[in-house]
Amino acid sequence: MRSIIPDYLTEALGDVESDISGELAGYIPELAAADPERLGAVFAMVDGAVYGAGDIDTEFTIQSISKPFTYALALSDRGFDPVLAKVGVEPSGEAFNQISLESDTGRPLNPMINAGAITVHSLAGSEQLNPTERVERVVQGLSAFAGRALTVDEAVCASELEHAHRNLAIAHMLRSHDILTEDPRVAVDGYIRQCAVLVTARDLAMMAATLANRGVNPRTGEQVVREPVVRQVLSVMATCGMYDAAGDWATQVGIPAKSGVAGGLIGALPGQIGIATFSPRLDPHGHSVRGVTLFERFSADMGLHVMEVPAAARAAVRSNHVVGKGPYAIRVFQLQGGIRFAGAERAVRETMDAAPAQARVALDLTMVSSIDDVSRRMLLEVVRRLTLDGHEVYLIDPDSIIPDPDPGDGGRVTVIGDLEEALSPGRTVT
Amino acid sequence: MRSIIPDYLTEALGDVESDISGELAGYIPELAAADPERLGAVFAMVDGAVYGAGDIDTEFTIQSISKPFTYALALSDRGFDPVLAKVGVEPSGEAFNQISLESDTGRPLNPMINAGAITVHSLAGSEQLNPTERVERVVQGLSAFAGRALTVDEAVCASELEHAHRNLAIAHMLRSHDILTEDPRVAVDGYIRQCAVLVTARDLAMMAATLANRGVNPRTGEQVVREPVVRQVLSVMATCGMYDAAGDWATQVGIPAKSGVAGGLIGALPGQIGIATFSPRLDPHGHSVRGVTLFERFSADMGLHVMEVPAAARAAVRSNHVVGKGPYAIRVFQLQGGIRFAGAERAVRETMDAAPAQARVALDLTMVSSIDDVSRRMLLEVVRRLTLDGHEVYLIDPDSIIPDPDPGDGGRVTVIGDLEEALSPGRTVT
Amino acid sequence: MRSIIPDYLTEALGDVESDISGELAGYIPELAAADPERLGAVFAMVDGAVYGAGDIDTEFTIQSISKPFTYALALSDRGFDPVLAKVGVEPSGEAFNQISLESDTGRPLNPMINAGAITVHSLAGSEQLNPTERVERVVQGLSAFAGRALTVDEAVCASELEHAHRNLAIAHMLRSHDILTEDPRVAVDGYIRQCAVLVTARDLAMMAATLANRGVNPRTGEQVVREPVVRQVLSVMATCGMYDAAGDWATQVGIPAKSGVAGGLIGALPGQIGIATFSPRLDPHGHSVRGVTLFERFSADMGLHVMEVPAAARAAVRSNHVVGKGPYAIRVFQLQGGIRFAGAERAVRETMDAAPAQARVALDLTMVSSIDDVSRRMLLEVVRRLTLDGHEVYLIDPDSIIPDPDPGDGGRVTVIGDLEEALSPGRTVT
Amino acid sequence: MRSIIPDYLTEALGDVESDISGELAGYIPELAAADPERLGAVFAMVDGAVYGAGDIDTEFTIQSISKPFTYALALSDRGFDPVLAKVGVEPSGEAFNQISLESDTGRPLNPMINAGAITVHSLAGSEQLNPTERVERVVQGLSAFAGRALTVDEAVCASELEHAHRNLAIAHMLRSHDILTEDPRVAVDGYIRQCAVLVTARDLAMMAATLANRGVNPRTGEQVVREPVVRQVLSVMATCGMYDAAGDWATQVGIPAKSGVAGGLIGALPGQIGIATFSPRLDPHGHSVRGVTLFERFSADMGLHVMEVPAAARAAVRSNHVVGKGPYAIRVFQLQGGIRFAGAERAVRETMDAAPAQARVALDLTMVSSIDDVSRRMLLEVVRRLTLDGHEVYLIDPDSIIPDPDPGDGGRVTVIGDLEEALSPGRTVT
Questions:
Q1: How are the residues of chain B apportioned to helix, strand and coil, as percentages rounded to the nearest 5?
Q2: What is the pLDDT of residue B430?
Q3: Is C42 noted as a catalytic residue in this protein?
Q4: Please, which residues have CB within 8 angstroms of residue B99's CB and are 6 or more apart in sequence?
Q5: Which GO terms describe its biological process (chains A, B, C, D) (predicted)?
């Protein structure tokens, strides 16, 4: 009976099935021989639920979709500075196969074009790895994103190696600028193996969901990369992922995305969902024709656009009332929903605007569904200031949404699970 | 006592004050004569609260910051298609004063470069307006965003007109491609008046907050433009607003933004906040030096980055339990927090996965802080399917977060304010 | 009976007549209404002889063919430095209507593209001229090249002014870089009048012949511009005259050339000939289709290519013999042909290699058909050195091809009309 | 005593000696270790005379100066069409190491940039040659131009191979477009050997003189390539040889030229001279600093500029008179100097304008120093027409400047060595 979303996906696929426009990638026989009618779509939720329709378990090569994930691995393995020194983050406004190096330094403009991706491949894993180990690191890393062990399509790999002149040209150019410091052929070989990793639409959706889930694979629970890396990768996907169609995509779809010439297309919406589609025919930009249509539909139907302003929320401060009387009276501020900076600001404002007349003040977090770091710090600062002003402060936090609260210099707070506890003796935490 | 945020802003200004790098815009005497030490920053919350520090009420000319707002007005006044036919949405990867027209059509690449902005100015208001009326429409529209009546700096305007050769060049080029269909000088005159509108940092923050608040000015409550327009404008700001520094900004700051040569800089984070800074010295990209530093800090300190994945939230389904016994038993699904697609999906999954054994089912929305359109429709579909499966369905919604619920063909739902009502006779809504 | 060349031209026109490919320039009605079948070709020799076939007296507007001539006028009126400071000499490799300014200075790349030509127009005549006088200077100057008073086609002029947005764009851009220092509209108006001057193919051939004839109109004998100006203009025509087809033209035709959108096409081969063709249909580069074919043929048939190496010439030293005996013996070096550096070098070598045994030496210039400046100086140096070595030197120069010879410090020479004079007492010139 | 030109060269070198600006090419140790003070200049006349001063016998690597000569070999070995199909002739307006391929076909813009030169190398010799044989063909061809057996600097060659990443990048890019059809590394290896050929300034001047002398080495007399090839090569040198300084060079020097990073610089003025200079410090364009200065001086001092209009020549028709009386009267047209199209036209005009009254007509070529093909044909046509008009025609041509004259259908001519012969019985040639 849980078929609302599968039904939706099936209907969406049905609507695009008749579109046979576009062309298969034809530069190697293996891609040219793909079944052009393949069609699949998968939603992977950040808690691990997966919905799919169509060809969601057919394997195909990951191709350029490997780029953001290998970028994540390089940032993770080497740190930001060494990677940024070699590869920029500016959109090129050009097609994927343009060389697009900075004219003075030879630094590739971004990691989504081939020049950037080949360089990024060379930065995956530790510096000590030999080329074979580095490819292993990449395949293992992509597997961690996907949550299963992925393998390389040796036939595609061999064929790509035979048609790698453009990538070899790029790599030699990078080598001439000392952006690459190894044999260009070795770097291209590794990059081609990376692109020949076999995935299914299901895998790709899970990989995207791992990005949407702050770097943690929703199924395996593995923290594949840290949050700052995820933020960097999603930002670069948003501005550079769709090459010269970046602006159209940003306005009409608004989901950080990446496509591959084998027909895959992924999108990751932070905190919500990873999406993948598979349909091999490509538009002139090199993106899956039906995939683009599906993403446009998903974005419109589901409100999945990073610039979608959420519907007017309830106030973060649900209520502001006094419980009890006389010296036992407590001013209670009941917060609710997901608290980010704007919500925390509101809480600060309401609690501090009119200095509470009561000696005792409680911040009730029972109905708070999430809270971010800055908001946690702001609420603790409120606690501290209230303490300094002579108040006795309680945090009603039955689920420890703020674990081990430390209001800092001069602040004191008593954590309780229920308001009732404040009306009777409770424990105190500094 | 509400000084946490003001204190923060004051500290932030203090930290950048010593940075006197950069140059005043010098192409007209009025800008070259600005006081380079001016420095201010304002936070405007989507509920109308405003925090500021420094020179927040000093007037200066809005310059290029008028571009996204006039783009919003044109989209609103003419509709999307006529505007998109004349001005693209692709980043140019070039400086603000590059002509950057599509080589075949002469269409400016995006509305943030001057060629696009001059064209957009010509599309503000209805087609019937004469040039004077069109400027009035623009000034009135900018005023609506700001929430107060803005005026034009006639001295700057006159001076800009004397130094308008580059813009006249652009306008004549646009005219030669029939992108502009009027006298180029008239279009440039109007555009220059638009850029010479006087604003304060406070105004700019409120204008940004209006974008962050789905087009509704938080103070006046006026719906200046509709939501799809806001989404389009924010998307274009995100990809094109910072010109050739777009990628650096997208990764390091991650707030859709726009700068002006008089020293203003704004950012709008959907659903949360409008930010403005003012400091006249500019970096080589034409952005306020201290403004950029302040935004980098705000983003880092406050978690204000569109790709910031919110901290792991509590489950959208807070609890799933049975109240009452025997035939009166009700299966209650208690939802919580802000419900968007991912949350609605979870709710659908839990309610429908295991078909409830109980004849009566209640969806408790009491603790839901917000819900978007797709989620509302998904929950109503759950209601419909439960009805079709023979259940009697209740919606516990004391604050009408889903007003007038209509589960559609075959569905029925009883809205109640409290679970108690379900245990006694209640009213029924189809 | 002098019909060899007219017959040739008639035959050549007949061969291209059936080619109706290409399109009329259509940006103004006057050009679009031209008779596409018009066809004419003219050869103007540097001594004033003119051969023509077809429509050689039909008037049409000169358009871009005015560019090299106005460049000549500006160089002549202002001097090289002020003109080179404003307009470069580098080929742009782009079409005629590209802006092509140097990115740092805004200086147009060369005087053959519109940006350069508008700037050059502004540099014609003295700085004191008002715009009307400047146009008069240009029309008068073009007339001097043509050898008859030319007039402006007012209808074309008016129509061009209505469609001048691209040129106005260029002029405003030039003004913004201070390359133009006057009202851009005034400069464009003047430039448009310059382009609307009416000419015939006969006029154009004579204008080209004036360039080929070192700046002297072969018919009127007027020195319109000086030789260094001619050299500069021909060099720039050779590299920039045919825009993005420059290389094809340089290899296949090899005649410095310039075309106009009204169908004119000129070529000037230094020292030999001015050629003009007229046929209004244009190829995608904007050049007359049949005109290009005719020039290719003329070049191939007539050996008119600047890189054509002349057939192996006779030795510059025709004979080296002794006349007379004993103390009256004279060593005679008989020179012949056109003497340029290579010929003079040969003469120097033969005269000085083996120091003549005879006390008397004669250089016989009777059969020399031309001599350039460096060669004249080299021969006089030979005279001087022979004198210093104790020889008595005679110059046999009946037609004063070296007038008033001055061999310089220590040199002496006796000019005689005939060797006989040396055998009898002659006059001596220091 | 023949020291006029050596003295001049010595003085010119002395004047530039103090200029130590510029930098040695530093991309390989061998070039970086060159003696920067080396300085030499050589003039090689088309008749084999050579003048030099300074370091004229020091060997250095030919580098890019090999490009025009290998282009000549490829055109010669394969024909024009196969070479033009692979490499264009348009100036790129870019530096030598830009890739500059046509965007659609991948065809290098011209043979003077590396992409073109690598492709040209692959087209030298017959298609059947293996890579080693092809390099041998190139070295042998360069040796034929120089007139002595040249060798390869193996140390430079090995070092260049280690630093060949940019050229390998270019070659792989060419391979990806099927412009190159062999292993890119093999093509680059061959090209590097070509560039590492050792030459002296004397060799280079002789190579240039071979171009100036219609493809015939002035010393060995070998016809290395045919005239159309020479014309093509000189044309391409004129427009593309000096890369992004092409326009400056064309106007200020006006000699088709080519430079190499080892410090060589050559120029060839058709029919006159080959020039070479050697000085290793390079300007930012990659041209020898002192070499450029020397060429500017040579051009100015010697009138060596292709657009230099020769000084006004004597009339091609020196005299037009009647010798003898009554039936024996002969109308004699005495021609003189170098006869090209313009001179022949004049001769045609004078001989045919006024139909000679005399039955006998003589064209006296005794004082003609040279005549080109078209002029020869025109004079013979005059002969034919005079014959048809009933005249008896004589050609006074003691040195057979028109060997075996054939006036064609209906024409008859009697060749005599002296006018006296016409006054007595002579031999007749049809």
A1: 45, 20, 40
A2: 40
A3: no
A4: B113, B115, B169, B170, B173, C99
A5: glutamate biosynthetic process; L-glutamine catabolic process
Q: Which of B256, B300, B260 is nearest to B275 (CA)?
A: B256
User: Does B17 reach chain A within 8 Å, measured CB to CB?
Assistant: no
Subunits close to A (at least 3 CB pairs below 8 A)? B, D
Q: How many CB atoms lie within 10 A of CB A10?
A: 15
* Contact criterion met (CB below 8 Å) for A234 and A270: yes
| SS3 label, residue D265 | strand
Beta-sheet pairing, D330-339 with D360-371: parallel
Strands D264-269 and C264-269, sheet pairing:
unpaired
Query: Which of A85-94, A312-321, C406-415, D267-276 shows the lowest mean pLDDT across its residues?
Result: A312-321
Distance, in Å, from the CA atom of C276 to the CA atom of C44, rounded to the nearest integer, reads 8
Q: For testing the chain B interface, which of C103, C176, C183 should be mutated: the one with the most B CBs within 10 Å?
A: C176
Catalytic residue among A8, A46, A66, A67: A67
| 3-state DSSP helix/strand/coil % of chain C, to nearest 5 | 45, 20, 40
From chain D, the residues in CB contact with C379 under 8 A are: none
Q: What is the pTM of this model?
A: 0.88
The mean-pLDDT minimum among A401-405, B131-135, B344-348, C281-285 falls in: B344-348
- Other CB atoms closer than 10 Å to residue B42's CB: what's the count? 27
Least confident stretch, B218-227, B294-303, D305-314: D305-314
Task: Give every CB contact of residue D104 below 8 A, 6+ residues apart in sequence.
Answer: none
ipTM reported for the complex, 2 dp: 0.89
CA–CA distance from B140 to each of B149, B198, B404, C78 (Å)? 7, 12, 36, 52
Q: How many residues does chain C have?
A: 430
Cα–Cα–Cα angle for D313, D319, D322, nearest 5°? 170
User: Given the DSSP bridges, would you call strands B360-371 and B392-396 parallel, antiparallel or unpaired?
Assistant: parallel
What does the alpha-carbon distance between residue C21 and residue D351 come to, in Å, rounded to a whole number?
40
D261 is catalytic: yes
Per-residue pLDDT reduced to its tens digit, D7-42 = 899 999 999 999 999 999 988 888 999 999 999 999
Asked if residue B184 lies in contact with residue C173, where contact means CB atoms within 8 angstroms, the answer is: no
CA dist., res. C310 & res. C306, Å (int) = 10
Taking CB atoms and an 8 Å limit, are D46 and C236 in contact across chains?
no
- The runs of H, that is alpha helices, within C266-416 are 289-302, 341-353, 373-388
pLDDT band at D313 (very low <50, low <70, confident <90, very high): low
Residues 298-357 of chain C with CB under 8 A from chain D are: 301-316, 336-338, 340-342, 345-346, 348-349, 352-353, 355
Those chains having 3 or more beta-carbon pairs within 8 angstroms of chain D are A, C
Count CB-CB contacts under 10 A for residue C327. 8
Place D2 in a pLDDT band, splitting at 50, 70 and 90: low
Residue with tokens 């949407």: A212
Domain architecture of chain B: domains with CATH: 4-302 (3.40.710.10), 317-423 (3.30.750.24)
Cβ pair C247:D381 closer than 8 A? no
| Distance between CA atoms of residues A195 and A198, nearest Å | 9
Q: Which amino acid does the sequence have at A20?
A: I
CB contact under 8 A, B214 and A309: yes
Q: Can you say whether the dihedral through the CA atoms of A216, A221, A225, A228 is positive or negative?
A: positive
Per the CB < 8 Å rule, is A342 touching B272?
Answer: yes
| pLDDT tens figures, C42-68 | 999 888 889 999 999 999 999 999 999
Give B391's pLDDT tier (boundaries 50, 70, 90): very high
- Token pair of A79 as six digits: 């740190």
Which CA distances in Å does A374 have to A17, A377, B299?
46, 5, 11
Average pLDDT over residues A119-133: 97
Chain C interface includes D41 (CB < 8 A):
no
